[in-house]
Design brief:
This protein is an alpha+beta fold. It has five helices and three strands, in the order ααβααβαβ. The protein has a three-stranded antiparallel β-sheet with strand order 2-1-3. The N and C termini lie far apart (76 Å). Residues 1-10, 12-33 and 35-46 have low confidence and may be disordered. The structure holds L-tyrosinamide (TYC). The site of L-tyrosinamide has 13 residues, from strand 1, helix 3 and helix 4.
């Protein structure tokens, strides 16, 4: 005992009981007293006879937001051939012939129709692909995007 804990060796004093040594050794917080304590180890813990308390993290997920979605819209005009519009819908929006024909006729009759709903980046890419392809083929077909 004396060899292990020389601090308790005092001339004329009886050695302290085992539990006193144990408490004295184990309950001292190992901190630098000149440095401020982080919030989770604030003053309460220093005075708590049970020793430093333990915090439990209750928020397990950080707040996140779903990215906004955008509709890609096809606009009608009087000059672009119907077959070309159907071809664009199949090529850039992976529609089969039936769906592409349905959307094209909807646009032809109503003036505007939805080709699909995507993240902003994907929607913008599809608009550019359709517009570039229409321009290369000298058709005035217009396509745009709108927040869903
Ligand atoms: N209105 C065009 C025609 O009669 C066909 C057409 C359909 C054009 C849809 C554009 O987005 C469009 N040839």
């Amino acid at each position: 005992m004396a060899a292990l804990y020389p601090i308790f060796e005092q001339p004329g004093l009886a050695p302290p009981p085992q539990h006193a040594i144990f408490q004295s050794v184990m309950t001292q917080p190992i901190t630098n007293p000149s440095r401020p304590l982080p919030p989770h180890m604030a003053k309460d813990d220093e005075q708590d006879p049970d020793g430093p308390s333990v915090g439990i993290a209750t928020r397990t997920r950080p707040k996140t937001k779903q990215p906004s979605q955008y509709k890609v819209l096809m606009l009608n005009d009087d000059y672009t051939p119907m077959e070309f519009v159907v071809h664009c819908l199949k090529r850039f929006f992976t529609m089969d012939t039936d769906d592409a024909t349905r959307v094209m006729l909807h646009v032809h009759q109503r003036g505007v129709g939805v080709c699909g709903i995507f993240s902003y980046e994907v929607a913008e890419t599809k608009v550019n692909q359709v517009m570039d392809f229409a321009r290369q083929n000298q058709h005035p077909l217009q396509c745009t995007l709108e927040k869903a």
